[in-house]
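Study both lines:
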Amino acid sequence: MSFCVNNSETLKILKEKKKAVVLGIGVSNLPLINILCDMGIEVTACDKKDLTSLSCADKLQSLGVKLSLGDNYLSALDSGDFVIFRSPGIRPDIKEISSALDRGCVLSSEMELFFEVCPAKIIGVTGSDGKTTTTTLIYKMLSLECEKRKLGQVFVGGNIGSPLLPLSEKMTENDFAVVELSSFQLMTMTKSPLVSVITNISPNHLNWHIDMEEYKNAKFNIFSPGNSHKLTVNFDCEETAELLNTPGNETVYFSSFPLPKDKSGVYLDGKDIIMRKDGVNTPIMSSDDIIIPGKHNVQNYMAAISAVSDYVSIEAIKQIATTFTGVEHRCEFVREVNGVRFYNSSIDSSPTRTAAALSSFNGNVVVIIGGRDKHLDLAPLAETLCARSKVAILTGESTKMVEEALEKCHSYHSSGLKAVICDDFENAVITAYKEAAPGDVVILSPAFTSFDRFNNFEERGRLFKKIVNEII
């Protein structure tokens, strides 16, 4: 691949130093390593895995990549002058990185480099909840409009899908890149998208971030105040309230209630989704047109509409609403067995996500809860379970913590909620089915991460679907 060095400060520095250390040999960094090797950069790749566990070791070594593996994988940072490319899961302030920066090294990442070299119009999406669905909706709306009008291409990636850096050479200024961005990626970002979207902010990932303030500031780092780009923000979210009057940005809002007269954006008036621009209200569609369930998905649609309103017609927006069936692992309908409907929402790794998922259903719900703790307050989860479900199947590392939260919940014993403990995940799914009656919903909405038993939430969700599909 060939990039224009003049468009990227990182590439200029790489050309001078001629050395790079890549921390983490994962999905996004493997293409980065290939690109660096093609540029003639001397690359050292670091990972906690040992040589026998790293399936791509032979290929990397054939490219001339030096490997630093195992418990002391960060020792590659001990000396030398190079550019460090950080995997999102590695904190940027660990002592090994700090010492290297003090020595004159430079810190970057695959995503930061993409932002520097990408010629396309970038729309970035972050938030605690709903960012994958919102990202997907923006991508689908833009793709449909571009196809109808024979415009440029639309690419999607970042925290979802394929790495975008290898595709940047194919992009032009007529194209769009829709990018989902996590707080881990955003912590060190210095460039902003053309359009930035913050779906909401609620406590999350506090097992990784120092505190809520750091987490929130990482999310806010998606945009730079004073830059001439568009910021789309949730008007209803208390944590984003301080962004309501950001100077130097075109700020638009989305809300489940009518917006104040002086605010532009997309809002819900009864069941009608309305767009206000320059004081003019334009009806878009009814929320009933949206076929994926849940009030939170109405908000996701409004966030997406706010972001793409300058580029996408109302017709294209409505067409997506009436045809898009949702993203895998997000309130995904699996099947109906003897009148019991099964939904896979394995992505729900926080109490707020589980609350949103359970609010999608009217009627009796049996919910499967459990996983690895993220140091979040579980009182809201207990309240949600008591208010929204008839049976909670507790499984995984978090079982005792959820039990304790339920016992402290004032409405637990009067709610009629039944809590059932299952040590085995498969048994939890089968037990949930046995506890359900015709007309009920069984949903996997764990409220915790998957890492107590699974590599990721996708693996957890697919096992759930496998078990459900085998029920006779």
Summary: Residues 48 and 72 are 8 Å apart (CA to CA). Residues 332-469 form a domain with the Protein-Tyrosine Phosphatase; Chain A fold (CATH 3.90.190.20). The mean pLDDT is 92. The chain is about 30% helix and 20% strand.
